[in-house]
Design goal:
Blueprint: E1 2-6, E2 17-21, E3 35-40, E4 43-53, E5 68-69, H1 76-91, H2 95-102, E6 112-119, H3 123-135, H4 139-151, E7 153-155, H5 156-162, H6 167-175, E8 179-186, H7 191-197, H8 210-224, E9 230-235, H9 241-254, E10 258-262, H10 270-280, E11 284-286, H11 293-304, E12 310-313, E13 325-331, H12 348-359, E14 362-367, H13 372-379, E15 384-388, E16 400-405, H14 406-411, H15 420-431, E17 435-439, E18 449-451, E19 468-469, E20 474-476, E21 483-485, E22 498-500, H16 505-515, E23 521-524, H17 534-543, E24 549-552, E25 565-570, H18 584-596, E26 607-612, H19 618-624, H20 628-642, E27 649-657, H21 660-680, E28 687-699, E29 702-711, H22 714-730, E30 738-743
Parallel strand pairs: 9-14, 9-15, 10-12, 10-13, 11-12, 13-14, 16-26, 17-24, 17-25, 23-24, 25-26
Antiparallel strand pairs: 1-2, 1-4, 3-4, 3-5, 6-7, 6-8, 18-22, 19-20, 20-21, 27-29, 27-30, 28-29
The structure holds adenosine-5'-diphosphate and zinc ion (2 copies).
């Protein structure tokens, strides 16, 4: 056996692995992640095993044996390498890419040295000196001593600039042994700006409701007894999940362990971070994509050194190198952003569970609308399920929901984007000076074709997935490649109003301004939130009542609290229903439930109006009633019927090449190799779909082909992936071709 060793655990050096022979006596200990001692040049060095193989990569005679293999102990690097291997195995991609994912990017960053002045003498002595200074009218000395007695220490700049103390005064106090100059390592602190902005006093935690308290008690009881589990907390928005997190975190930290709190980047707002800061002060830090590499590295370092207890951040914060991790929380567990879009295409939920297992931590998943995967696992007993049934704030009620059938509107001759009911309600709210949110679900509107008279959507006869309009006038199914010409009339009712549907938010803003000239309007979408703070700016402007109507995409429905919003209008609920992947209904339900959750967060009752061409669709019906379980049952039945996750597993392969014929040939070879793999496994049955052009058939001059494989057993798909990786490695036909694997994709290709 041979081991690939990395010697230097820093991302810059990860490409350099060295192969060593494993002596027989170490065979058992030599596992991925194990620390080893190797001969290196003319010295010995420590390294880690990142991969094992049967074959030597170079001439066998030139490979040296390892000196020693140590137990894969509690070393954080060791766990991270094991985690990288888990990611590579289960989600594809190279070991190198996986290591880059889990290890902090070590960037030589010069620490900023900062000086401070501290009180060096006893307080009584300093007090005497102060009295002396007052008597002798040494005003500078007096000022400095007074401040130091109050603060104990002062940053150098404060002393020299704000207090304007001359150097000579400082010198004489140092000589007298009253003060001391110290230097402190200054980390770039991402919390600094946040804390500065905060004018609110330390908030006291509200007493938990009985429901909240029961959940906290149960989780803490398990934890204290040493039981480590994965929990799923389902509770509508506003039911008080965050308070539950805070209380559990408090206990875990009290027991001397650290916590990773994952939040989708879009929900990582000032308000959210502040809640954690109020509870845990300086022991909290954050990571986000706007921070520089240096800033991010600083935060990893602080975590590693035990200077913080809680790290809040998006997916990548999962790899915070806490030495004694106790808990990982994933808020909004259903969010797509927990799945990496770049290889390795890992899912943070699965990797969190693995990391927790390696390090003896618990995992807490929370959502108003759990993913089908998570809820299914909870029902099967793999996760422990908790439910919060009501809103936490007294008096806050679930909103009233009305569904408007847009086909009826058309019949009545109303072709505007506002139904009569919505127009009426907006006018009424504007008169009462209450706020309105208008939600345009843009996701997936790219080109699905529907009839505006009867609501019929052009779907693939083989896949139950809406077809996508291509510019050459054809409709294509992106799951099986089925292609038809675009019909001039609706095949169901004959209407000529059949077209690719889609109205952007910009257009809506125009229409709102025209229809309601008295209203002050804000718009939030990808275009208006390009600059660094614009997202927060728009939200705070709206929350300060600088506008009456906020128009936006899904961005506006994620967890923001606007107590003055009493009407939420969803302009076309079907848009996400007709996107070209099997999660369309789930996503629609999520978005509608979230959007509905925006209304009536304060004392005033809220109302939600859903406009749709498919009012009878179960995802819309269930969302209107906030009936998660009803939705889950229906959707799960559908997934079972068509064998989609979580009823089965899918391995998607994306074949990329700058040359179309290369992509096509490589995809065909992969399909062939897949069939070969199946033949070699006695009795194995799989469903192979493709190769087909991806819905984004060419991007940045790269051609894209897809293959999908469906199988119940995830491990068989992993075996297939491993087989294909080997096949690709030894085949001549994959030069200039890149193959990406994606297990249970979260979005269509
Ligand atoms: P979620 O995370 O489920 O959306 P939050 O924890 O943010 O819910 O709670 C929603 C609102 O209810 C917040 O304003 C929060 O301060 C308040 N809240 C939560 N729990 C309580 C409680 N036990 N007593 C009073 N207010 C609470
Ligand atoms: Zn029709
Ligand atoms: Zn199809």
């Amino acid at each position: 056996m041979y081991a690939d060793i990395i010697v230097d655990i820093s991302a810059g050096q990860l490409d350099k692995t060295y192969q060593y022979r494993i002596p027989e006596k170490f065979a058992a200990q030599a596992v991925i992640g194990a620390p080893v001692l190797i001969p290196f040049g003319n010295r010995q060095r420590k390294g880690y095993i990142v991969d094992l193989s049967e074959e030597p990569k170079i001439e066998e005679a030139r490979i040296k044996p390892l000196i020693a293999v140590e137990e894969r102990g509690k070393v954080i690097e060791s766990n991270m390498i094991t985690l990288a291997y888990f990611i590579r195995e289960n989600f594809g991609g190279t070991m190198n890419a996986a290591l880059h994912t889990v290890l902090p990017v070590k960037k030589e960053v010069r620490q900023v040295e900062k000086k401070k002045l501290v009180l060096a003498a006893e307080r009584a002595v300093a007090g005497d000196a102060l009295a002396q200074a007052v008597k002798k009218k040494h005003v500078a000395k007096e000022r400095l001593l007074r401040e130091l007695l109050a603060e104990c220490e002062l940053p150098w700049e404060v002393v020299t600039e704000k207090l304007a103390i001359p150097q000579s005064t400082i010198k004489s106090l140092v000589t007298a042994g009253l003060v001391r100059v110290e230097s402190m390592t200054q980390y770039r602190n991402p919390m600094a700006g946040i804390v500065e902005k905060d004018k609110v006093q330390q908030r006291i935690a509200p007493p938990l409701t009985k429901e909240q308290q029961n959940i906290v008690t149960e989780i803490v009881k398990d934890y204290t007894e040493g039981l480590r589990k994965t929990y799923l907390l389902r509770g509508v928005t506003g039911s008080g999940k965050t308070e539950v997190y805070l209380s559990v975190i408090e206990e875990v930290v009290r027991q001397g362990r650290q916590v990773i709190m994952l939040i989708p980047e879009i929900a990582l707002t000032y308000q959210t971070v502040l809640r954690f800061y109020h509870r845990f002060g300086d022991r909290v830090s954050i990571l986000n994509s706007r921070m520089s590499q240096g800033e991010r590295y600083d935060q990893s370092l602080r975590a590693e050194r035990g200077e913080i207890d809680i790290m809040i951040g998006p997916r990548s914060a999962l790899f915070t190198p806490f030495p004694k991790l106790g808990l990982i929380i994933l808020d909004e567990e259903h969010e797509n952003s927990y799945k990496s879009e770049m290889p390795p295409k890992y899912h943070a939920r699965e990797v969190a569970v693995k990391r927790a297992e390696l390090e003896g931590a618990s995992v807490l998943l929370g959502s108003a609308t759990p993913s089908l995967e998570a809820y299914n696992k909870a029902l099967q007993g793999e996760y422990r399920l908790f439910t919060l049934t009501g809103r936490a704030v007294e008096g806050a009620r679930l909103p009233q929901v009305e569904i408007v059938d847009l086909r009826e509107e058309l019949k009545e001759g109303n072709r505007s984007i506002f139904s009569r009911s919505l127009r009426e309600k907006i006018t009424e709210r504007l008169a009462k000076k209450e706020q309105i949110m208008l939600f345009m679900n843009r996701r997936g509107y790219a080109g699905f074709v529907s009839c505006r008279s009867c609501g019929h959507v052009m779907k693939c006869p083989h896949c139950d997935i809406s077809m996508t309009e291509h510019s050459n006038g054809t409709l294509v199914c992106h799951y099986c490649g089925h292609t038809i010409g675009k019909p001039p009339n609706c095949p169901v009712c004959g209407s000529k109003y059949i077209a690719a549907f889609g109205t952007g938010t910009q257009k809506i803003e125009e229409l709102v301004r025209r229809e309601f000239p008295q209203a002050r309007v804000l718009r939030m979408d990808a275009d208006t939130t390009r600059t660094k703070d614009s997202y927060e700016d728009i939200l705070s402007a709206f929350s300060c009542k600088e506008a009456d109507i906020l128009i936006g995409t899904q961005m506006i429905v994620k967890g923001h609290d606007f107590p003055m919003v009493t009407l939420v209008g969803i302009l076309a609920a079907d848009l996400s229903l007709n996107s070209n992947d099997y999660r369309a209904a789930e996503r629609t339900f999520e978005l509608l439930a979230q959007a509905a959750g925006r209304a009536g967060r304060g004392e005033r009752a809220g109302e939600v109006l859903i406009q749709t061409y498919q009012p009878e669709h179960y995802s819309i019906q269930a969302a209107a009633k906030e009936d998660y379980e009803g939705f889950f049952a229906q959707e799960m039945a559908y997934r079972r019927a068509v064998a989609y996750p979580p009823a089965a597993n899918i391995l998607a392969m994306l074949v990329l090449s700058p040359k179309e014929e290369l992509a096509e040939a490589a995809a065909a070879l992969l399909a062939g190799a897949t069939e070969q793999f199946v033949r070699e496994q006695e009795g194995l049955e799989i469903t192979l779909i493709g190769p087909v052009p991806a819905s984004l058939a060419k991007a940045n001059d790269i051609y894209r082909r897809m293959i999908y494989v469906k199988q119940e057993d995830y491990n068989l798909l992993v075996a297939l992936k491993n087989f294909l990786e080997g096949y690709i490695l030894y085949s001549e036909n994959f030069k200039n071709v890149n193959v990406q694997f994606d297990f249970n994709p979260m979005s269509g290709y």
